[in-house]
Here is the input.
Amino acid sequence: MKWTDSENIGFALFERFPEIEPLTVRFTDLREKVINLEGFDDDPKTSNEPKLEAIQMAWYEEWKEDQE
Here is the structure.
C-alpha cells in the first residue's frame, strides 16, 4: 500500500484498531499507525496532511458503518 491508497489503508486501520474512534487520532499518531501496517511500503517522508486526512476519513467511514 502507498499513501494514496486511502481506502485500503482506512480499511486496514479499522481491522487492526476497531476500538479506536478515528477522528480522535492525531496525525502524528496516524502516520505511525500507517507506517507500521503490514503491507505498507511507501516512503514515510512523503506523507502530508491531505494524504493523512484522506486516510483518516476512510478509516472513519469504516468505523462509522460498524457503529450503526
